[in-house]
Design a protein that fits this description.
Layout: H1 3-17, E1 30-32, H2 36-54, E2 58-60, H3 63-72, H4 75-78, H5 87-96, H6 102-113, H7 117-124, H8 142-157, E3 164-168, H9 174-183, E4 186-191, H10 194-203, E5 209-213, E6 225-231, H11 242-252, E7 253-266, H12 275-280, H13 290-297, E8 302-308, H14 311-327, H15 338-356, E9 360-368
Parallel strand pairs: 3-4, 3-6, 4-5, 6-7
Antiparallel strand pairs: 1-2, 7-9, 8-9
Helix pairs in contact: 1-2, 2-15, 3-15, 7-14, 8-9, 11-13, 14-15
């Protein structure tokens, strides 16, 4: 038996553990066009699987269903120690190097968020919200689900007219504009993305919104804020910096202040990052666990509420994927070529499978500086 045949046999046996067949007709089954896929998958882990997909070596009948099977069957745990991957290198990088500070923080953010507002506008919809939408209030489309998410956050924060709010990692400004327009707040918003800052400035009308190009580490002010929010930002902070981050937020809050964190969450505590996601999508990104967040907040905040609606991210990602496919013919194909298209689909649908399998979570966490008098009333 040749090495190629051996790799093929081993890979098929591993796929069978997740009830995935090569050449099958079910949604999770795959087609392999080039046997190099088997070697790349076996020797390079997620990096090999992802890059071989980008290069067109294989397809899935439905990529989201393929990843749902991979994650829900805990395939990674079943094959642990059997594959010759470079995961150890990435694990050591996570433990030894602080990849979310200084110039790295700007470089990491700009590598993803500055690739083109035209791409994000076509995918995200009217709100330009690039985080999990909230579908529990009966939204019929992604735009309404994102507005419902904005209102959910504002109600949890108890916003009142005239409050001073800080949005850390504000994206394209959808939430700050909503807070200023609907609730009459003065919102300072910070992001290390130049494209996001430019977009926010071009969309401010008469609202009291102050956008600043900055990371949380570099943000300096003597002002105290009544409320602080960060949505989809803690994933970029890194385990080595969680405690410093929450301490900085505590220092920026008034004594009666409240902070809300929306973050994707990991079921386990780790300092490792996924090699493919790190290289192509979110450089330096690591998902926090409940334990890591709780430890970092200890002595700084009272945890008032912890809301998990991770299943809503599956629906959000599938809506983004639909928008992306619909708009792709009108995008610049020199910038977003066929390989980019396959990379972006792999990213969106792999994440959808992860949330559908409950392998990853989505949390909204409400924290108060000194405890809410009389108790905090949870909102759903």
């Amino acid at each position: 038996m040749t090495k190629t045949q051996d790799n093929k046999k081993i890979a098929k046996k591993l796929l069978n553990l997740a009830d995935i067949k090569v050449g099958g007709k079910r949604p999770q089954d795959i087609k392999v066009y080039d046997d190099r896929f088997y070697q790349q998958a076996l020797t390079r882990g997620s990096l090999g699987v992802g890059e071989s997909y980008m290069d067109g070596l294989w397809d899935a009948n439905r990529l989201d269903s393929f990843f749902y099977q991979v994650f829900s069957s805990h395939l990674e745990e079943k094959v642990k120690g059997k594959l010759r991957t470079n995961i150890l290198l990435y694990g050591l990088k996570g433990y030894l190097i602080n990849r979310q500070t200084g110039k790295r923080a700007y470089k990491n953010a700009q590598a993803h968020y500055d690739i083109g507002n035209d791409l994000y506008r076509s995918m995200l919809g009217k709100t330009m919200a690039y985080s999990c939408a909230y579908w529990e209030w009966g939204a019929k489309d992604i735009d309404q689900a994102q507005i419902d998410k904005f209102d959910l956050i504002c109600k949890k924060l108890g916003l009142k007219k005239g409050m001073k709010v800080l949005d850390v990692g504000c994206g394209w400004g959808g939430l700050p504009i909503h807070m200023a327009k609907k609730y009459g707040c003065e919102v300072t918003c910070i992001t290390p993305s130049k494209e996001q800052i430019a977009y926010i400035k071009s969309h401010i009308k008469n609202e009291k919104i102050i956008p600043k190009l900055s990371t949380w580490q570099d943000f300096k002010t003597r002002q105290k804020f009544d409320r602080i929010v960060s949505v989809g930002m803690l994933e970029h902070v890194g385990p080595k910096n969680y405690q410093a981050y929450f301490k900085a937020m505590n220092n920026l809050l008034t004594d009666g202040g409240i902070k809300l964190v929306q973050t994707i969450g990991n079921n386990i505590s780790t300092q490792k990052f996924d090699p493919w996601m790190d290289k192509y999508i979110f450089p330096g990104g690591i998902l926090p666990s409940i334990k890591q967040i709780a430890k970092a907040c200890e002595g700084l905040f009272v945890t008032e509420d912890w809301h998990n609606f991770g299943a809503d991210y599956d629906k959000t990602l599938m809506a983004w994927h639909k928008n992306f496919l619909k708009s792709y013919p009108g995008l610049d194909h020199q910038r977003y070529d066929r390989r980019f298209k396959r990379m972006w689909e792999f990213y969106l649908l792999a994440c959808a499978g992860g949330f559908r399998s409950r392998n990853i979570q989505l949390w909204q966490i409400v924290l108060s500086k000194n405890g809410v008098g009389g108790g905090y009333k949870s909102i759903r």
